[in-house]
Every structure is written in structure tokens, then in C-alpha cells.
């Protein structure tokens, strides 16, 4: 066998960490000069995937995933993302359109060494495991006690990660050391500020809508009150108009006589 030839590879069994599941990857016969690089990218992506799940995902048997909508499917979403990357790379290899290093086309292995890749991995974790709270979940030091505090205070004092849509990613899932890096703290601080501003804007908008509705509802009663106040003036104006037009001559003569008496005196 020549040195540049690569032996046929039909499957690859990978045991990652202490996980009991055995993954069998079946590779087609990849042709081309970069077939070894493509195989390496495939294998490296699987390893990076399980490293990502181990550091950013919920642990197996963690019941807290059922307190966040869709969090129990976070691992499945991560695996699907890696499968799509591998399928995309395989398709490009098949049509001979690989113009760059194959490892740059698979997200998890590429992000391990990319600038600020840890921040992107964190956002992927929030996207995969984050969601809306569906139940009230409290452990010792896990969720802050609401008591008499407002929802804004609880929201701002929580150490969980909140996405812009209000999705929550629990602090207990942050096992990666990248969460305490200065770039990560700055990023999520800005993210939380954006979420807080959005939340407070919604409160102000709701309050303004309530005020507008109250004003619109009160307009008919205000109009009726105004009509009652100007009713005497309206009646007086109509009576003067009748006197001016001599619609009732005896009243007009009486009014003129009365006015003349007042003026003479």
C-alpha cells in the first residue's frame, strides 16, 4: 500500500467519557486529495460535540430540564447541529467544492480555537437548553426568594443567563470555565442590560396603553358633563334669538321696556 493511500473505513465506534452510549459513524468512500482531512474533521467534530455537551449542557438525569420549556431536547439539538455540519462537509466533498480547511466548516471543533469561540459556544448552549420557565423551581441558593421584591429586582439579581426573548439558562449548567472569563462576563452583562431595558420598556408600554384606554373610555362621560355645564347658556342664547326675531312680540316689548327702564335709571 502506498503511503498516500488511505485504507477503507466503514465505521468508527467512539466512547466519550463515561457515557454508556456507543456511537457508530458510517463513512462513505470519500474520494479526492483531502479525504484524510475530511475524515479528521468528522472525528474531531464528534469529540468536540461531546466536550460541548459535557461542559455546557445539562447532565443526564438532571430533572431541572423539565422546568425549562424544551430544555430536555437540548442534547438532541446539539447532536443535530453536529450532524448537519458533517452532512454539509460530506456534500461539499462529494461535489469537489472544498476550497478551505475542512475543520473550518464544522462548528464545534472550529469554535474551540476560534477567537471568542467560547462566547459563541455559550450562545449555542443558551439556544439549545434555554427556554421559558414552565414551573417554579427552587433549590438552596438556586432561585432568589421573591418575597416582597418586584419581578424586576429578582430578574436583575439572578445569576442565570437570560436571552433577549426571555429564555433562561440555569446557572447549574455552567460547568465550563469560560463562563467566568472577562469577555464572557462583559458579553452577558450587556445582554442582560438589553433584556432588562426591553422588559422595562414593555412595562412602560403596557402602562401607557392602560392610561390611553382609560382616557378614551372617559371621553363620553366628559362630553356629557360639558353639555350639562353649557346647557343654561345655550337656553339663554336661544331665548335672546327669539326676542331678536320678534317671534313672540309681547315678550320682546316687555324685554325692551325692562331694558329701557334699567338704562334710564
Quick gist of this model?
The chain contains 7 helices and 4 strands; from the N terminus they run ββαααααββαα. With about 260 residues, the chain is mostly helical.
Please describe the topology of this protein.
Blueprint (H helix, E strand, L loop, with lengths): L10 E4 L8 E4 L8 H22 L17 H21 L12 H5 L5 H13 L21 H7 L3 E2 L5 E2 L12 H63 L4 H16 L1
Antiparallel strand pairs: 1-2, 3-4
3D architecture notes:
The chain is 55% helix and 5% strand. The protein is built from seven helices and four strands; from the N terminus they run E-E-H-H-H-H-H-E-E-H-H. The chain has a two-stranded antiparallel ribbon. Strands 3-4 form a two-stranded antiparallel ribbon. Helix 1 runs antiparallel to helix 2 and helix 2 (74-94) packs across helix 4 (117-129). The longest helix has 63 residues, at 182-244.
Features:
265 residues; mainly alpha; two-stranded antiparallel sheet; two-stranded antiparallel ribbon; 7 helices; disordered N terminus
Could you give the order of the helices and strands?
A: EEHHHHHEEHH
Helix content: 55-70%
Beta strands, count: 4
Structural class: mainly alpha
Radius of gyration: 38 Å
The multimeric state of the shown protein is single chain
